[in-house]
Inverse folding.
């Protein structure tokens, strides 16, 4: 087992990883930018190293600074958390070259999954259902128009380097193809330095359901059931739950099998997520594979009663997994509490938390680095806390979430708590009747 892990991240996930390391008897190194010098991960880690100024490119994204911190502290592994360098091929490679275990995917797996057209080709070969569309990249708008005649409108153009909706255009009719093509290409080129575009049939009002997977260094893989992440706004998830209210035992078996196929096709090591779009007929299609621990891993932990960070560390250290799948025994919901003003276009609201009281009681979990007096820096994302509730049924989980939200006091900054309170009372949400289009019509302001 590792003796010392450096956590190349900040905020709640840095604290989350430190907690598990402590329970496993592993020493920890926090790295921090000057904006985070008074943060809880810095306080609770065994050692802390400043890696630069607030701007991420010079601290949490600086491979040289982080590797230097690992060398001087003698860390034998690095946990990247999510975001930042967690899916950076070069970082995974540099760790390898320095004899430091990267607790995440291998460089070739990151590259193979990061390029979406390549990922899709791999999944088609492995027998994982994919959305009908172009075979690989399109070379010009003429080919796009020709392909769309076969795929049939509406179609969607996607940037191969994309994710998060950048360089994506829905095209409803041939007349709109030229403009969509030009703008998708230009946006992708500017954002990723790669303007490769492929095409798919556009699936209208799908659900976003992802399967948690784990694989070990011996080729074993299993799934840990699903999370429903359909409720998003501008590709930012707002709430996640498991089991999905749309799930059936039969669909879970089929999606679980497909996710395991996906994991085995790339000999996946560690924990990861296979994202699917699910249409109204419960047909599902591979969308992306995430080679990191995700923000929403918590709800899976609650319903299968397992520490996924511990699992991740054990797999990285060479432990075998049993290969059996995990099924939810409870219902868990996570609300992302962001320092944003939901009544003002979710505008970020950084600043000092002047007063703080978090809910508690049976079935309530809070993952946060926030406290009274904490100043939320404006340099990073606006998530300040994850409120997770677990209960026997979905109905009870919603009632518990309402109760917990009512107890949650955060003053000094605007938060998404009032939004979540409205959501818990929404009829469609309560009935489990929602798709990725939910936020387009949800009137939470009245
Ligand atoms: C799609 C789609 C419909 N049809 N692909 C959005 C982010 C990127 N990773 C893929 N996305 C989508 N791909 C086809 N063929 C709809 C979306 C999509 C979406 C997907 C998941 C969650 C929220 C979404 C919001 C808008 C669009």
């Amino acid at each position: 087992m590792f003796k010392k892990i450096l956590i190349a991240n900040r905020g709640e996930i840095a604290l989350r990883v430190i907690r598990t390391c402590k329970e496993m008897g592993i020493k920890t190194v926090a790295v921090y930018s000057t904006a985070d010098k008074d943060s809880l991960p810095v306080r609770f880690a065994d050692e802390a190293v400043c890696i630069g100024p607030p701007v991420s490119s010079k601290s949490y994204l600086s491979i040289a600074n982080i590797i230097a911190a690992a060398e001087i502290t003698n860390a034998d592994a690095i946990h990247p958390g999510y975001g930042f360098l967690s899916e950076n091929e070069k970082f995974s490679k540099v760790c390898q070259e320095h004899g430091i275990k990267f607790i995440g995917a291998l460089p070739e797996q990151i590259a193979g999954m990061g390029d979406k057209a390549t990922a899709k080709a791999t999944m088609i070969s492995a027998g994982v259902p994919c959305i009908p569309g172009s075979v690989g990249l399109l070379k010009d708008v003429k080919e796009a128009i020709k392909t769309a005649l076969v795929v049939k409108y509406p179609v969607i153009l996607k940037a191969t380097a994309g994710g998060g909706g950048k360089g994506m255009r829905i095209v409803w009719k041939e007349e709109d193809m030229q403009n969509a093509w030009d703008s998708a290409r230009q946006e992708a080129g500017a954002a990723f330095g790669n303007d490769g575009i492929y095409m798919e049939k556009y699936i209208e009002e799908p659900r976003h359901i992802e399967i948690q997977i784990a694989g070990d260094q011996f080729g074993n893989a299993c799934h840990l059931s699903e999370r429903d992440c359909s409720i998003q706004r501008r590709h930012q998830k707002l709430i996640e739950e498991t089991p999905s209210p749309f799930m059936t035992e039969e669909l879970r078996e089929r999606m679980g099998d497909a996710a395991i196929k996906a994991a085995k096709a790339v000999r996946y090591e560690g924990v990861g997520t296979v994202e699917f779009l699910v249409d109204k007929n419960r047909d599902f299609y591979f969308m992306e594979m995430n080679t990191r621990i995700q923000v929403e891993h918590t709800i899976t932990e609650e319903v299968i009663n397992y520490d996924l960070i511990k699992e991740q560390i054990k797999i990285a250290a060479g432990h075998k997994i049993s290969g059996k799948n995990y099924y939810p025994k409870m219902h868990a919901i996570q609300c992302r509490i962001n320092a944003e003003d939901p009544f003002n276009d979710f505008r970020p609201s950084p600043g000092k938390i002047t007063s703080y009281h978090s809910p508690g009681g049976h079935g309530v979990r809070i993952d946060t680095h926030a406290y009274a007096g904490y100043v939320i820096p404006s340099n990073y994302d606006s998530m300040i806390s994850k409120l997770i509730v677990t209960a026997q049924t979905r109905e009870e989980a919603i009632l518990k979430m309402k109760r917990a939200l009512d107890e949650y006091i955060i003053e000094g900054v605007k938060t998404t708590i009032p939004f979540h309170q409205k959501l818990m009372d929404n009829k469609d949400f309560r009935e489990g009747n929602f798709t990725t289009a939910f936020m387009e019509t949800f009137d939470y302001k009245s």
Summary: The mean pLDDT is 97.
